[in-house]
Amino acid sequence: MSIKDEFLKKLKEIARSRNQQIDRAFIHWYINVAFGDVKHVVTDGPCDGGIDAIVRPERRGNKLLYVLQSKYTDSFFKGRTTPPLNPSHYTDFDNLPMLLRSDKKFENWIASVEHGLKHEYQRLRKDFLDEGGTIEWRLITLHSRSRRGENKLTNLGTDAFQYGAAIIELYEMEREGATPPGDPLELTFSESMTIEDKDMGYKSYALAASLRDFINYMDNDPEGRLFARNVRLDLRSEINKDIKHTYLSAPREFWYSHNGITVICSNATISGKTVRLINPSVINGSQTLNTLRGTTKRFPEARVLTRVLVVPSERQERSDPDGRKEFINDVIFRTNQQNKMYAYDLRANDIRQVELARDFMNNGVFYERRRGEWYQRRRAFQNQGIERLNCVELAQTLAAFDPDIGVATAKKGKEELFREKYDKIFYNPFLEIYLTFRVFKFASKHVKEMPSRRIKPRMRKHAILTVASILYGTIDSGKYYNKMKCSTGVINNIWGMRNQPQHSHKLKKITQRIFKDCWSIWRKENKKDPTLSPNNFFKSEQWNSIVRKKLVRKYSRAANAAVGHALEQIWK
Questions:
Q1: How far apart are CA 490 and CA 401, in angstroms?
Q2: What is the pTM of this model?
Protein backbone atom coordinates (compact mmCIF):
# COMPACT_ATOMS: atom_id res chain seq x y z
CA MET A 1 0.00 0.00 0.00
CA SER A 2 1.44 3.38 -1.02
CA ILE A 3 1.74 6.28 1.40
CA LYS A 4 -1.13 8.06 -0.39
CA ASP A 5 -3.35 4.98 -0.08
CA GLU A 6 -2.55 4.79 3.65
CA PHE A 7 -3.43 8.45 4.07
CA LEU A 8 -6.72 8.09 2.20
CA LYS A 9 -7.63 5.09 4.35
CA LYS A 10 -6.90 7.20 7.46
CA LEU A 11 -9.17 10.02 6.26
CA LYS A 12 -11.98 7.57 5.48
CA GLU A 13 -11.72 6.08 8.96
CA ILE A 14 -12.01 9.55 10.50
CA ALA A 15 -14.97 10.40 8.27
CA ARG A 16 -16.71 7.15 9.21
CA SER A 17 -16.07 7.58 12.94
CA ARG A 18 -17.32 11.19 12.90
CA ASN A 19 -20.16 10.49 10.44
CA GLN A 20 -19.10 13.32 8.13
CA GLN A 21 -17.83 13.97 4.61
CA ILE A 22 -14.17 13.25 3.86
CA ASP A 23 -13.36 16.91 3.12
CA ARG A 24 -14.41 17.87 6.65
CA ALA A 25 -12.54 14.85 8.07
CA PHE A 26 -9.45 16.27 6.33
CA ILE A 27 -9.78 19.45 8.40
CA HIS A 28 -10.16 17.54 11.67
CA TRP A 29 -7.19 15.31 10.84
CA TYR A 30 -5.02 18.33 10.09
CA ILE A 31 -5.91 20.15 13.31
CA ASN A 32 -5.25 17.07 15.43
CA VAL A 33 -1.89 16.27 13.79
CA ALA A 34 -0.61 19.82 13.31
CA PHE A 35 -1.65 21.19 16.72
CA GLY A 36 -2.59 18.32 19.01
CA ASP A 37 -5.39 18.53 21.57
CA VAL A 38 -6.07 22.29 21.44
CA LYS A 39 -9.03 24.63 21.53
CA HIS A 40 -10.49 25.12 18.07
CA VAL A 41 -13.71 25.80 16.23
CA VAL A 42 -14.51 24.37 12.80
CA THR A 43 -16.52 26.95 10.84
CA ASP A 44 -16.61 25.10 7.51
CA GLY A 45 -19.99 25.50 5.80
CA PRO A 46 -21.84 27.19 2.94
CA CYS A 47 -21.59 30.69 4.49
CA ASP A 48 -18.29 30.48 6.36
CA GLY A 49 -16.75 33.61 4.87
CA GLY A 50 -13.75 31.76 3.47
CA ILE A 51 -12.60 30.42 6.85
CA ASP A 52 -12.85 26.73 7.73
CA ALA A 53 -11.35 26.66 11.23
CA ILE A 54 -9.84 28.83 13.96
CA VAL A 55 -7.29 27.19 16.23
CA ARG A 56 -6.24 28.68 19.56
CA PRO A 57 -3.28 26.81 21.08
CA GLU A 58 -2.38 27.83 24.61
CA ARG A 59 0.70 30.02 24.83
CA ARG A 60 2.54 31.50 27.80
CA GLY A 61 3.52 34.64 25.95
CA ASN A 62 1.72 36.38 23.09
CA LYS A 63 -1.40 34.80 21.73
CA LEU A 64 -0.88 32.78 18.58
CA LEU A 65 -3.99 32.00 16.53
CA TYR A 66 -4.27 29.97 13.38
CA VAL A 67 -6.85 30.72 10.72
CA LEU A 68 -7.34 27.78 8.36
CA GLN A 69 -8.90 27.33 4.97
CA SER A 70 -9.08 23.90 3.35
CA LYS A 71 -9.31 22.77 -0.28
CA TYR A 72 -9.70 19.02 -0.59
CA THR A 73 -9.54 17.08 -3.86
CA ASP A 74 -9.95 13.35 -4.55
CA SER A 75 -7.73 13.65 -7.63
CA PHE A 76 -4.70 13.74 -5.32
CA PHE A 77 -5.17 10.02 -4.66
CA LYS A 78 -5.89 9.01 -8.26
CA GLY A 79 -2.66 9.95 -10.02
CA ARG A 80 0.77 11.52 -9.76
CA THR A 81 -0.31 14.90 -11.15
CA THR A 82 -2.86 16.95 -9.24
CA PRO A 83 -4.60 20.05 -10.67
CA PRO A 84 -3.12 23.30 -9.35
CA LEU A 85 -5.05 25.37 -6.84
CA ASN A 86 -7.38 27.85 -8.52
CA PRO A 87 -5.85 31.38 -8.52
CA SER A 88 -9.10 32.80 -7.13
CA HIS A 89 -8.53 30.87 -3.89
CA TYR A 90 -5.26 32.75 -3.44
CA THR A 91 -6.87 36.14 -3.74
CA ASP A 92 -9.84 35.21 -1.52
CA PHE A 93 -7.60 33.98 1.27
CA ASP A 94 -5.13 36.83 0.78
CA ASN A 95 -7.97 39.36 1.28
CA LEU A 96 -8.89 38.11 4.78
CA PRO A 97 -6.25 40.14 6.70
CA MET A 98 -7.42 43.25 4.84
CA LEU A 99 -11.05 42.53 5.73
CA LEU A 100 -10.20 42.31 9.42
CA ARG A 101 -8.20 45.53 9.25
CA SER A 102 -10.92 47.70 7.66
CA ASP A 103 -14.10 48.62 9.60
CA LYS A 104 -16.24 49.02 6.48
CA LYS A 105 -15.00 45.90 4.69
CA PHE A 106 -15.36 43.83 7.86
CA GLU A 107 -18.99 44.93 8.37
CA ASN A 108 -19.87 44.08 4.76
CA TRP A 109 -18.08 40.73 5.01
CA ILE A 110 -19.52 39.61 8.35
CA ALA A 111 -23.05 40.43 7.15
CA SER A 112 -22.68 37.63 4.59
CA VAL A 113 -21.61 34.87 7.00
CA GLU A 114 -23.82 32.50 8.97
CA HIS A 115 -25.34 34.11 12.06
CA GLY A 116 -23.84 31.53 14.43
CA LEU A 117 -20.31 32.46 13.31
CA LYS A 118 -20.56 36.22 13.78
CA HIS A 119 -19.46 36.20 17.43
CA GLU A 120 -16.46 33.98 16.67
CA TYR A 121 -15.37 36.23 13.80
CA GLN A 122 -15.78 39.38 15.89
CA ARG A 123 -13.56 37.78 18.51
CA LEU A 124 -11.07 36.92 15.78
CA ARG A 125 -10.96 40.53 14.63
CA LYS A 126 -10.39 41.78 18.16
CA ASP A 127 -7.45 39.41 18.49
CA PHE A 128 -6.16 40.53 15.10
CA LEU A 129 -6.23 44.21 16.06
CA ASP A 130 -4.75 43.53 19.49
CA GLU A 131 -1.06 44.43 19.46
CA GLY A 132 -0.25 41.40 21.60
CA GLY A 133 -1.99 39.00 19.27
CA THR A 134 -0.41 37.12 16.39
CA ILE A 135 -2.27 35.30 13.65
CA GLU A 136 -0.82 32.58 11.43
CA TRP A 137 -2.70 32.09 8.17
CA ARG A 138 -2.76 28.65 6.54
CA LEU A 139 -4.53 27.36 3.48
CA ILE A 140 -4.16 23.59 3.39
CA THR A 141 -4.83 21.78 0.17
CA LEU A 142 -4.18 18.57 -1.71
CA HIS A 143 -3.89 20.57 -4.93
CA SER A 144 -0.50 21.45 -6.34
CA ARG A 145 0.79 25.03 -6.27
CA SER A 146 -0.16 27.68 -8.80
CA ARG A 147 2.57 30.17 -9.64
CA ARG A 148 -0.06 32.44 -11.19
CA GLY A 149 -2.02 32.39 -7.93
CA GLU A 150 1.06 33.05 -5.79
CA ASN A 151 1.92 36.08 -7.93
CA LYS A 152 -1.41 37.63 -6.91
CA LEU A 153 -0.55 37.62 -3.18
CA THR A 154 -0.20 41.04 -1.51
CA ASN A 155 -0.92 40.44 2.21
CA LEU A 156 0.30 36.88 2.75
CA GLY A 157 3.50 35.07 1.92
CA THR A 158 3.76 31.86 -0.08
CA ASP A 159 4.49 29.90 3.12
CA ALA A 160 0.84 30.43 4.14
CA PHE A 161 -0.08 27.76 1.56
CA GLN A 162 0.55 24.08 2.22
CA TYR A 163 0.13 21.77 -0.75
CA GLY A 164 -0.25 18.02 -1.18
CA ALA A 165 3.45 17.26 -0.73
CA ALA A 166 3.54 19.09 2.62
CA ILE A 167 0.39 17.28 3.75
CA ILE A 168 1.94 13.89 2.98
CA GLU A 169 5.07 14.98 4.83
CA LEU A 170 2.90 15.77 7.87
CA TYR A 171 1.23 12.36 7.60
CA GLU A 172 4.64 10.66 7.53
CA MET A 173 5.69 12.68 10.58
CA GLU A 174 2.53 11.45 12.31
CA ARG A 175 3.50 7.85 11.55
CA GLU A 176 6.97 8.48 12.98
CA GLY A 177 5.63 10.07 16.18
CA ALA A 178 7.03 13.50 15.28
CA THR A 179 3.76 15.43 15.49
CA PRO A 180 2.52 17.95 16.33
CA PRO A 181 5.46 19.73 14.67
CA GLY A 182 6.97 22.77 16.30
CA ASP A 183 5.77 26.27 15.52
CA PRO A 184 7.87 28.26 13.04
CA LEU A 185 11.25 29.16 14.55
CA GLU A 186 12.79 32.58 13.89
CA LEU A 187 16.52 32.96 14.46
CA THR A 188 18.55 36.13 14.24
CA PHE A 189 22.15 35.74 13.15
CA SER A 190 25.24 37.86 12.72
CA GLU A 191 26.88 35.82 9.96
CA SER A 192 25.65 33.18 7.52
CA MET A 193 26.78 30.92 4.73
CA THR A 194 24.54 29.18 2.18
CA ILE A 195 25.39 25.77 0.72
CA GLU A 196 23.26 24.61 -2.21
CA ASP A 197 23.71 21.02 -3.35
CA LYS A 198 22.10 20.88 -6.78
CA ASP A 199 22.99 17.22 -7.30
CA MET A 200 21.12 16.02 -4.19
CA GLY A 201 18.56 18.82 -4.23
CA TYR A 202 19.16 20.11 -0.71
CA LYS A 203 19.97 23.57 0.59
CA SER A 204 21.62 24.19 3.95
CA TYR A 205 22.83 27.16 5.98
CA ALA A 206 25.58 27.71 8.53
CA LEU A 207 24.63 30.50 10.92
CA ALA A 208 26.09 32.34 13.88
CA ALA A 209 22.66 32.26 15.51
CA SER A 210 21.44 33.89 18.69
CA LEU A 211 21.15 31.37 21.51
CA ARG A 212 18.56 33.65 23.07
CA ASP A 213 16.12 32.89 20.25
CA PHE A 214 16.27 29.15 21.00
CA ILE A 215 15.68 29.76 24.73
CA ASN A 216 12.77 32.13 24.06
CA TYR A 217 11.22 29.53 21.72
CA MET A 218 11.42 26.80 24.38
CA ASP A 219 9.45 28.99 26.81
CA ASN A 220 6.45 28.45 24.52
CA ASP A 221 7.26 24.81 23.75
CA PRO A 222 6.65 22.97 27.03
CA GLU A 223 6.05 19.65 25.27
CA GLY A 224 9.41 19.77 23.48
CA ARG A 225 8.05 19.70 19.92
CA LEU A 226 11.31 21.24 18.75
CA PHE A 227 13.01 17.93 19.58
CA ALA A 228 10.40 15.55 18.12
CA ARG A 229 12.88 13.91 15.74
CA ASN A 230 15.76 13.73 18.18
CA VAL A 231 16.60 10.22 19.35
CA ARG A 232 17.34 11.36 22.91
CA LEU A 233 16.66 14.40 25.07
CA ASP A 234 18.16 15.79 28.28
CA LEU A 235 20.55 13.10 29.62
CA ARG A 236 21.36 15.03 32.81
CA SER A 237 25.09 14.47 32.52
CA GLU A 238 28.00 16.39 34.05
CA ILE A 239 28.52 18.07 30.68
CA ASN A 240 25.25 19.95 31.24
CA LYS A 241 26.76 21.84 34.20
CA ASP A 242 29.69 22.98 32.06
CA ILE A 243 27.37 24.12 29.27
CA LYS A 244 25.27 26.20 31.65
CA HIS A 245 28.33 27.62 33.42
CA THR A 246 29.84 28.79 30.11
CA TYR A 247 26.57 30.43 29.07
CA LEU A 248 26.09 32.25 32.38
CA SER A 249 29.69 33.24 33.12
CA ALA A 250 31.11 33.83 29.62
CA PRO A 251 28.26 34.13 27.09
CA ARG A 252 30.49 35.71 24.43
CA GLU A 253 32.77 32.65 24.58
CA PHE A 254 29.93 30.19 23.95
CA TRP A 255 30.57 30.43 20.22
CA TYR A 256 34.14 29.20 20.70
CA SER A 257 33.26 26.47 23.19
CA HIS A 258 30.39 24.58 21.57
CA ASN A 259 30.30 22.19 18.60
CA GLY A 260 26.97 23.53 17.38
CA ILE A 261 23.31 22.69 16.82
CA THR A 262 21.77 20.97 13.80
CA VAL A 263 18.19 21.73 12.73
CA ILE A 264 16.18 20.25 9.89
CA CYS A 265 13.11 21.99 8.47
CA SER A 266 10.83 21.84 5.43
CA ASN A 267 11.34 25.48 4.43
CA ALA A 268 13.64 28.36 5.37
CA THR A 269 13.12 32.02 4.47
CA ILE A 270 15.84 34.60 5.08
CA SER A 271 14.97 38.27 5.48
CA GLY A 272 17.88 40.50 6.40
CA LYS A 273 19.54 38.97 9.46
CA THR A 274 16.59 36.73 10.35
CA VAL A 275 15.74 33.24 9.14
CA ARG A 276 12.29 31.67 9.57
CA LEU A 277 12.16 27.87 9.74
CA ILE A 278 8.97 25.89 9.01
CA ASN A 279 8.51 22.53 10.80
CA PRO A 280 11.81 22.91 12.66
CA SER A 281 13.31 19.97 14.52
CA VAL A 282 16.61 19.93 16.40
CA ILE A 283 18.30 16.62 15.58
CA ASN A 284 21.57 17.37 17.37
CA GLY A 285 22.04 19.72 20.29
CA SER A 286 18.95 18.94 22.35
CA GLN A 287 21.06 18.29 25.44
CA THR A 288 22.52 21.80 25.17
CA LEU A 289 19.19 23.52 24.67
CA ASN A 290 17.36 21.56 27.37
CA THR A 291 20.16 22.49 29.77
CA LEU A 292 19.44 26.17 29.11
CA ARG A 293 15.65 25.80 29.09
CA GLY A 294 14.00 28.21 31.52
CA THR A 295 17.10 30.21 32.36
CA THR A 296 16.12 33.79 33.22
CA LYS A 297 19.22 35.42 31.75
CA ARG A 298 19.13 36.02 27.99
CA PHE A 299 22.43 37.28 26.60
CA PRO A 300 22.26 38.84 23.10
CA GLU A 301 26.01 38.27 22.67
CA ALA A 302 25.71 34.48 23.13
CA ARG A 303 25.99 32.89 19.70
CA VAL A 304 25.99 29.25 18.66
CA LEU A 305 26.99 27.61 15.40
CA THR A 306 23.71 26.43 13.85
CA ARG A 307 23.47 24.25 10.79
CA VAL A 308 20.10 24.33 9.08
CA LEU A 309 19.22 21.60 6.60
CA VAL A 310 16.19 22.29 4.42
CA VAL A 311 14.43 19.12 3.29
CA PRO A 312 11.48 20.45 1.26
CA SER A 313 8.26 18.50 1.19
CA GLU A 314 8.31 18.71 -2.63
CA ARG A 315 10.86 15.87 -2.53
CA GLN A 316 7.92 13.61 -1.74
CA GLU A 317 6.93 13.95 -5.39
CA ARG A 318 10.16 12.34 -6.59
CA SER A 319 10.33 8.77 -7.89
CA ASP A 320 11.98 7.57 -4.68
CA PRO A 321 9.49 8.46 -1.90
CA ASP A 322 11.55 6.68 0.76
CA GLY A 323 14.74 8.53 -0.16
CA ARG A 324 13.89 11.60 1.91
CA LYS A 325 13.11 9.61 5.05
CA GLU A 326 16.24 7.47 4.69
CA PHE A 327 18.34 10.60 4.18
CA ILE A 328 16.96 12.24 7.33
CA ASN A 329 17.53 9.10 9.41
CA ASP A 330 21.12 8.87 8.15
CA VAL A 331 21.78 12.50 9.06
CA ILE A 332 20.28 12.01 12.54
CA PHE A 333 22.48 8.94 13.07
CA ARG A 334 25.70 10.60 11.89
CA THR A 335 25.23 13.87 13.75
CA ASN A 336 24.74 11.99 17.02
CA GLN A 337 27.95 9.99 16.80
CA GLN A 338 29.96 12.48 18.86
CA ASN A 339 28.44 11.10 22.08
CA LYS A 340 27.75 7.50 23.04
CA MET A 341 24.79 6.09 21.13
CA TYR A 342 23.02 2.86 21.95
CA ALA A 343 20.95 0.60 19.75
CA TYR A 344 17.81 1.59 21.65
CA ASP A 345 18.56 5.27 20.89
CA LEU A 346 18.67 4.49 17.19
CA ARG A 347 15.34 2.63 17.40
CA ALA A 348 13.60 5.55 19.14
CA ASN A 349 11.82 6.78 16.00
CA ASP A 350 11.17 3.32 14.58
CA ILE A 351 7.53 3.02 13.54
CA ARG A 352 7.01 0.05 15.89
CA GLN A 353 8.29 2.07 18.87
CA VAL A 354 5.99 4.94 17.96
CA GLU A 355 3.03 2.55 17.72
CA LEU A 356 3.84 1.08 21.14
CA ALA A 357 4.09 4.56 22.65
CA ARG A 358 0.64 5.41 21.30
CA ASP A 359 -0.97 2.14 22.43
CA PHE A 360 0.55 2.30 25.92
CA MET A 361 -0.51 5.95 26.35
CA ASN A 362 -4.08 4.94 25.45
CA ASN A 363 -3.87 2.69 28.52
CA GLY A 364 -2.42 5.25 30.93
CA VAL A 365 1.25 4.26 30.49
CA PHE A 366 3.94 6.60 29.17
CA TYR A 367 6.34 4.54 27.07
CA GLU A 368 9.71 6.29 27.16
CA ARG A 369 11.23 5.43 23.78
CA ARG A 370 13.74 8.31 23.91
CA ARG A 371 16.15 8.85 26.76
CA GLY A 372 15.22 11.84 28.92
CA GLU A 373 11.67 12.09 27.55
CA TRP A 374 9.94 11.32 30.85
CA TYR A 375 11.65 14.13 32.77
CA GLN A 376 10.22 16.81 30.52
CA ARG A 377 6.64 15.96 31.44
CA ARG A 378 6.84 13.80 34.54
CA ARG A 379 5.09 16.29 36.85
CA ALA A 380 2.03 16.51 34.60
CA PHE A 381 2.02 12.75 34.04
CA GLN A 382 2.38 11.92 37.72
CA ASN A 383 -0.48 14.28 38.57
CA GLN A 384 -2.64 12.38 36.07
CA GLY A 385 -1.64 9.01 37.51
CA ILE A 386 0.20 7.96 34.35
CA GLU A 387 2.74 5.16 34.79
CA ARG A 388 6.22 5.15 33.29
CA LEU A 389 7.68 2.33 31.19
CA ASN A 390 11.20 2.50 29.80
CA CYS A 391 11.87 0.89 26.39
CA VAL A 392 14.87 -1.05 27.75
CA GLU A 393 12.81 -2.38 30.66
CA LEU A 394 10.12 -3.57 28.24
CA ALA A 395 12.69 -5.20 25.94
CA GLN A 396 14.25 -7.07 28.86
CA THR A 397 10.83 -8.21 30.07
CA LEU A 398 9.78 -9.46 26.63
CA ALA A 399 13.10 -11.26 26.16
CA ALA A 400 13.01 -12.82 29.64
CA PHE A 401 9.49 -14.13 29.10
CA ASP A 402 10.46 -15.75 25.78
CA PRO A 403 11.85 -19.26 26.50
CA ASP A 404 13.95 -19.10 23.31
CA ILE A 405 15.78 -15.99 24.56
CA GLY A 406 15.57 -16.14 28.34
CA VAL A 407 16.52 -14.12 31.40
CA ALA A 408 20.28 -14.50 30.94
CA THR A 409 20.24 -12.84 27.51
CA ALA A 410 17.77 -10.21 28.72
CA LYS A 411 20.12 -9.16 31.52
CA LYS A 412 23.37 -9.30 29.61
CA GLY A 413 22.58 -8.04 26.13
CA LYS A 414 20.67 -4.75 25.97
CA GLU A 415 22.30 -3.94 22.64
CA GLU A 416 21.44 -7.37 21.23
CA LEU A 417 17.79 -6.92 22.19
CA PHE A 418 17.55 -3.87 19.93
CA ARG A 419 19.58 -5.42 17.13
CA GLU A 420 19.47 -9.17 16.39
CA LYS A 421 16.48 -9.92 18.66
CA TYR A 422 14.51 -6.77 17.88
CA ASP A 423 11.89 -8.16 15.46
CA LYS A 424 11.28 -11.31 17.54
CA ILE A 425 10.78 -9.29 20.71
CA PHE A 426 8.76 -6.30 19.56
CA TYR A 427 6.76 -7.47 16.56
CA ASN A 428 4.05 -9.26 18.52
CA PRO A 429 0.40 -8.25 19.10
CA PHE A 430 0.06 -5.35 21.51
CA LEU A 431 -2.24 -7.26 23.87
CA GLU A 432 0.46 -9.91 24.30
CA ILE A 433 3.08 -7.24 24.97
CA TYR A 434 0.75 -5.44 27.38
CA LEU A 435 0.12 -8.68 29.27
CA THR A 436 3.86 -9.28 29.76
CA PHE A 437 4.24 -5.73 31.04
CA ARG A 438 1.42 -6.15 33.58
CA VAL A 439 2.68 -9.55 34.78
CA PHE A 440 6.16 -8.09 35.31
CA LYS A 441 4.80 -5.07 37.24
CA PHE A 442 2.62 -7.40 39.34
CA ALA A 443 5.52 -9.71 40.21
CA SER A 444 7.90 -6.82 40.85
CA LYS A 445 5.48 -5.08 43.22
CA HIS A 446 4.74 -8.15 45.33
CA VAL A 447 8.36 -9.30 45.50
CA LYS A 448 9.53 -5.88 46.68
CA GLU A 449 6.92 -5.68 49.43
CA MET A 450 7.75 -9.10 50.92
CA PRO A 451 9.04 -8.96 54.52
CA SER A 452 12.37 -10.77 54.64
CA ARG A 453 15.46 -10.23 56.76
CA ARG A 454 17.55 -12.80 54.93
CA ILE A 455 17.23 -11.20 51.48
CA LYS A 456 18.10 -7.52 51.31
CA PRO A 457 16.17 -5.24 48.90
CA ARG A 458 19.24 -4.80 46.68
CA MET A 459 19.63 -8.56 46.36
CA ARG A 460 15.97 -9.04 45.45
CA LYS A 461 16.50 -7.19 42.20
CA HIS A 462 18.62 -10.09 40.95
CA ALA A 463 15.60 -12.41 41.07
CA ILE A 464 12.72 -10.21 39.86
CA LEU A 465 13.06 -10.99 36.13
CA THR A 466 13.40 -14.70 36.87
CA VAL A 467 10.34 -14.73 39.15
CA ALA A 468 8.26 -12.74 36.66
CA SER A 469 9.25 -14.99 33.75
CA ILE A 470 8.33 -18.10 35.75
CA LEU A 471 4.99 -16.56 36.73
CA TYR A 472 4.28 -15.79 33.06
CA GLY A 473 5.37 -19.32 32.12
CA THR A 474 2.74 -20.79 34.45
CA ILE A 475 -0.12 -19.21 32.46
CA ASP A 476 1.11 -18.71 28.87
CA SER A 477 0.27 -22.26 27.83
CA GLY A 478 -2.85 -22.62 29.97
CA LYS A 479 -6.42 -22.86 28.69
CA TYR A 480 -7.27 -19.34 29.87
CA TYR A 481 -4.34 -17.59 28.17
CA ASN A 482 -6.16 -16.39 25.03
CA LYS A 483 -9.28 -15.43 26.97
CA MET A 484 -7.15 -13.45 29.42
CA LYS A 485 -5.55 -11.29 26.70
CA CYS A 486 -8.78 -10.49 24.88
CA SER A 487 -8.60 -6.84 26.01
CA THR A 488 -6.48 -4.50 28.12
CA GLY A 489 -9.45 -4.11 30.47
CA VAL A 490 -9.44 -7.83 31.30
CA ILE A 491 -5.65 -7.81 31.71
CA ASN A 492 -5.88 -4.84 34.09
CA ASN A 493 -8.58 -6.56 36.12
CA ILE A 494 -6.41 -9.62 36.66
CA TRP A 495 -2.88 -8.16 36.83
CA GLY A 496 -3.40 -4.47 37.46
CA MET A 497 -2.78 -2.74 40.75
CA ARG A 498 -6.49 -2.56 41.51
CA ASN A 499 -7.23 -6.29 41.46
CA GLN A 500 -10.25 -7.93 43.06
CA PRO A 501 -9.14 -9.39 46.44
CA GLN A 502 -10.28 -12.96 45.63
CA HIS A 503 -7.89 -13.64 42.76
CA SER A 504 -5.31 -10.96 43.58
CA HIS A 505 -4.49 -12.67 46.87
CA LYS A 506 -4.02 -16.08 45.22
CA LEU A 507 -1.73 -14.78 42.48
CA LYS A 508 0.22 -12.74 45.00
CA LYS A 509 0.85 -15.84 47.14
CA ILE A 510 1.98 -17.82 44.09
CA THR A 511 4.39 -15.03 43.11
CA GLN A 512 5.92 -14.88 46.57
CA ARG A 513 6.26 -18.67 46.79
CA ILE A 514 8.09 -18.68 43.44
CA PHE A 515 10.42 -16.04 44.83
CA LYS A 516 11.15 -18.06 47.97
CA ASP A 517 11.72 -21.23 45.95
CA CYS A 518 14.19 -19.45 43.69
CA TRP A 519 16.27 -18.38 46.66
CA SER A 520 15.95 -21.79 48.28
CA ILE A 521 17.42 -23.41 45.14
CA TRP A 522 20.26 -20.86 45.14
CA ARG A 523 21.11 -21.59 48.78
CA LYS A 524 21.35 -25.31 48.07
CA GLU A 525 23.64 -24.70 45.11
CA ASN A 526 25.63 -22.11 47.05
CA LYS A 527 26.45 -24.74 49.69
CA LYS A 528 27.87 -26.96 46.96
CA ASP A 529 29.70 -24.04 45.29
CA PRO A 530 30.35 -21.07 47.63
CA THR A 531 31.59 -18.97 44.67
CA LEU A 532 28.12 -19.01 43.12
CA SER A 533 26.80 -15.53 43.98
CA PRO A 534 23.13 -14.50 43.58
CA ASN A 535 24.12 -12.24 40.71
CA ASN A 536 25.86 -15.06 38.81
CA PHE A 537 23.09 -17.54 39.64
CA PHE A 538 20.27 -15.36 38.28
CA LYS A 539 22.33 -14.35 35.25
CA SER A 540 23.14 -17.94 34.37
CA GLU A 541 21.36 -19.34 31.35
CA GLN A 542 21.79 -22.87 32.73
CA TRP A 543 20.31 -22.17 36.17
CA ASN A 544 17.46 -20.03 34.84
CA SER A 545 16.45 -22.84 32.51
CA ILE A 546 16.52 -25.42 35.32
CA VAL A 547 14.65 -23.23 37.80
CA ARG A 548 12.06 -22.13 35.22
CA LYS A 549 11.16 -25.68 34.15
CA LYS A 550 10.92 -26.92 37.73
CA LEU A 551 8.78 -24.08 39.12
CA VAL A 552 6.54 -23.69 36.05
CA ARG A 553 5.48 -27.32 36.47
CA LYS A 554 5.00 -26.82 40.20
CA TYR A 555 2.73 -23.77 40.05
CA SER A 556 0.95 -23.96 36.65
CA ARG A 557 -2.21 -25.62 38.00
CA ALA A 558 -2.63 -23.14 40.87
CA ALA A 559 -1.89 -20.09 38.69
CA ASN A 560 -4.34 -21.13 35.97
CA ALA A 561 -7.02 -21.86 38.55
CA ALA A 562 -6.55 -18.33 39.94
CA VAL A 563 -6.78 -16.82 36.46
CA GLY A 564 -9.88 -18.90 35.66
CA HIS A 565 -11.51 -17.73 38.89
CA ALA A 566 -10.64 -14.13 38.00
CA LEU A 567 -12.27 -14.44 34.58
CA GLU A 568 -15.42 -15.86 36.14
CA GLN A 569 -15.61 -12.86 38.48
CA ILE A 570 -15.05 -10.41 35.61
CA TRP A 571 -17.71 -11.93 33.35
CA LYS A 572 -20.39 -12.42 35.99
A1: 20
A2: 0.58
